[in-house]
Amino acid sequence: MKKHDLLKKAKRYPNGITREDAAAQKSENLIQRDFSSSTPNAKWLSDITEVPSSDGKLYLSAVMDCFNGEIVGLAMDDRMESFFAALKKEKLYQIKTEHYPMARIKSIIFRYIMVYYNRRRIDTSNPGGWRPAIYRERLLSNAA
C-alpha cells in the first residue's frame, strides 16, 4: 500500500499553548475589530507565539501600538513568563474562588497585581531587583 501511496497521512495536531474552553465566559470585545487609534498609547495589542527551534521552543511576545503599528514592547525566552503561575500560587490557590462572585475575584486579582505584584514584590528580572513599578518610575525620571 505504501508503494502506491495509499497510506493515510496523519493529520498534524500542533502542540499549541492555547486550548479553547467552551465553558469559559467570553470577554467583552472592547476593540470591535477596530485596530486603529488617532493618538499614541491609547490602544495597544499583544500576542504571543511559540517558535520551534533545533534546541527547544522560543516564546515570543510583542505589544503593538495601534496608532502607528510600532512594536513598543517585545520579550523572547525559552520559557513562558511565570506571572500566571505566581498569581495562582500566591493568591488564587489560597482562596476558594468558586465561593466568590466574579466581581469579588476581579477585585482580588486587581489588588494583587496593582498593589502587590507591581509595587511590593521584589523582582529579580531587572537590574537591582527593584519592584516593577518603581523600576519603571526611576528609569523614566532618569531619562527626563
What do these coordinates show?
There is one protein chain. The protein is of the alpha+beta class and 144 residues long. Helix content is 25%, strand content 19%. The protein has 3 helices and 3 strands, in the order E-E-E-H-H-H. A 3-stranded antiparallel sheet has the order 1-2-3, with no helix packed on it. It starts with 43 loop residues before the first strand and ends with a helix.
Features:
single chain, 144 residues, 2 domains, three-stranded antiparallel sheet, 3 strands, extended
Give the topology:
Elements lengths: L43 E10 L2 E10 L5 E7 L5 H8 L11 H16 L14 H12 L1
Antiparallel strand pairs: 1-2, 2-3
Low-confidence stretches: none
Average per-residue pLDDT, rounded, comes to 82
Outline = extended
Largest sheet: 3 strands, antiparallel
H-E order: EEEHHH
Total number of beta strands: 3
| Number of spatially distinct domains | 2
Helix content, binned percent? 25-40%
Looking at how many chains there are and whether they match, the oligomeric state comes to single chain
By secondary-structure content and strand pairing, the structural class works out as alpha+beta
Q: What is the CA-CA span between the terminal residues? A: 72 Å
Q: In which order are the strands of the major sheet placed?
A: 1-2-3
How many alpha or pi helices? 3
Q: Strand-residue fraction?
A: 15-25%
Radius of gyration: 21 Å
Organism: Paenibacillus taihuensis
Pfam families: rve
Protein name: Integrase-like protein
Domain Integrase catalytic: 39-86
